[in-house]
Amino acid sequence: MQNNSIHGMWSSRLAFILAASGSAVGLGNIWRFPYLASDNGGGAFVLVYLGCILLVGLPIMAAEILMGRHGRMSPVNTLRKLTSEGGHSKGWVVIGWIGMAAAVLILSFYSVVGGWTLHYAWLYLQQLFGGAPITDPGATFGALLASPGTLVFWHSVFMLLTVGVVAMGVEKGLERAVKLLMPLLFLILLGLFAYGVSTGKVGQAFSFLFTPDFGKVDGNVLLAALGQAFFSLSLGMCGIMTYGAYLPRDISIPKVAGTVALMDTSVALLAGLAIFPVIFAFGLDPAGGGPGLIFTSLPLAFNDMPFGIPYALAFFVLLAVAAWTSSISLLEPPTAFIVEKGKVSRKGATLLAALGIWALGLVTALGFNVWSSVRVFDRDLQGAVEYIASDLMLPIGGLLIALFAAWVLRKEISQGELSDLGKTGFGLWKILCGIVAPGLVLVILYMKLFG
Length: 451
Ligand code: PHE
What we know:
The chain is mainly α and 451 residues long. The protein is built from 19 helices and no strands.
């Protein structure tokens, strides 16, 4: 059993919690969750989503952390180590490859959307100093998507910010960044929530999010909720496994996993309760807003509300910060993998990984304009990359992780890593991770693909 990772270690429990919540809390909570909830029937979606977090997300998060902490390497090499140590089939190493491929795909479109948030923050910063107001948000958003130059510019800036942190390493880069950025994120979010309360529409937002309409629950809602649970908790792509590799031995895995899942879920709900009141207060209809929801509906509200412009600036800075701390966890696994090859320094590895992902991001960026007629799986290119990575690869990766951790990995290892669960707690984890979570993932994937 190795005590340290060659890449560095988190200095404390708090550092890990901030880093893992930084990974979990992102565009998924503030951009994706609200539009998925409104496109999938509000409360019906939220309830299924919460169920997925508890029954699928939490046990798999524990599995990822424990595998990472035992392996202490990037996902592929952690899986190589775990399989060779235990004499298991090398086939399981595919978990690491799927995870890394998912991370690369997700970061490629994530960085483009992260770029949107920077673009909007910039627009509102200019407006604060007398720049032209956004009077027709649909047109502003449309113009952004239609401009390959602007999209690629902000995608590049966002990628550079991510590289800047990851290149500095675990302690001096990742840990320092999340210690600074996460408190900022919570502060802005609380401010926005307080504003939502002041609109008097929190009640309506609350009933929109929490009144379940079971008639609306179908295969699509189930898959969207499951995909979102994986996406939001950053599971199935071995990012949390990589962060687990840097976790000191004496820290309780169940406790940190529970804390991270709680933080992530609270932020998603809080974001919903900050955003929907504003949408309702201005008489807008959130349904069918799709990925453009917050970019096309909120700016209308920002124009009319008191302190709308500083509010808008805070909102888009919040989004950008949330996206930034997530994107570093997407760049870390491929970077660590390249470092382990032993040919380049960490800085070189970061640049190499980022360059490839940046180039792949052009597919997303150009898919909105030059290649806008291209349809894959009945979606535009961004939608297709997002669908393949988050709705298919994350659940499949998660399924394999769950099966491996519960049934293949030697019990001494899993039980040792989860020792503070006690015997009953460990038994419960094993049922959830080995039966319930894989069962649910399989049923939902089957319904989606063949149902
Ligand atoms: N969890 C992040 C979010 O909610 C997205 C993400 C997915 C980050 C997978 C890392 C890995 O925005």
